[in-house]
Amino acid sequence: MGATPSATRSAAPPAERTALVRASGPEAARLLDEVEALSGRLGGLALRSEDVVHGDFHHRNLLADGDRVTAVIDWEQAMPGDWRYDVLWLAFWCRADRRGVEPLAAELAGGHADALVRPDERAVYAGLLTLRLLDLFAHLWPTG
Questions:
Q1: Beta-strand (E) ranges in 18-137?
Q2: How far apart are CA 82 and CA 35, in angstroms?
Q3: DSSP character for 4?
Q4: What is the pLDDT, as a whole number, of residue 7?
Q5: CA 59, CA 99: separation in Å to the nearest integer?
Q6: String of b and e for 54-85 (b: at least 16 CB within 10 Å)?
Q7: What pLDDT shows up at residue 42?
Q8: 61: which of 78, 102, 109, 134 is 20 to 30 A away, CA to CA?
Q9: From CA 36, how far away is CA 63, in angstroms rounded?
Q10: Do 71 and 54 contact (CB within 8 A), yes or no?
Q11: Residue 142 in contact with residue 23, Cβ under 8 Å?
């Protein structure tokens, strides 16, 4: 364990990105407020910081031959951090986007994530995931 990983170093995006998220609508602004409050409560939590984190590890970034993973692609978001973030990200996307995901695979990914990460750590990563999605949606579908 060590300092907070790069992937979670700042719970709030830069000011201009925060403004874009808030301008997306009242629900986005409410979620951003909740994540910022979570950051205040759990900001001192020490998480791993020296692992390799893919940053976008999900079923559509894996190449496989049958049951064997042969490659992991799309490394542009890679950074030092806590490798368990990738497990949680995979579990989220296996449940959120079930295209091409066997139900058993989604269940296994979720169970593995639950077994690896304590609830307080999971809250931090859930907040980070929420920020990433809010930021993505604000950029894909800006208002005005």
A1: 51-53, 62-65, 68-72, 79-81
A2: 19
A3: P
A4: 43
A5: 9
A6: bbbbbbebeeeeeeeeeeeeeeeeeeebbebb
A7: 64
A8: 134
A9: 36
A10: no
A11: yes
Q: What is the pLDDT along the chain (144 residues), one digit of tens a residue?
A: 333 344 444 444 467 778 888 888 888 888 888 877 877 776 677 778 899 999 999 989 999 898 899 999 999 999 999 999 999 999 999 988 888 888 998 999 999 999 999 888 888 888 888 888 888 888 788 775
Asked if residues 130 and 92 have their Cβ atoms less than 8 Å apart, the reply is no
Coil, strand or helix at 5? coil
For the chain, what are the domain ranges? 6-140
Residues 6 or more apart whose CB falls under 8 angstroms from that of 34 comprise: 127, 130
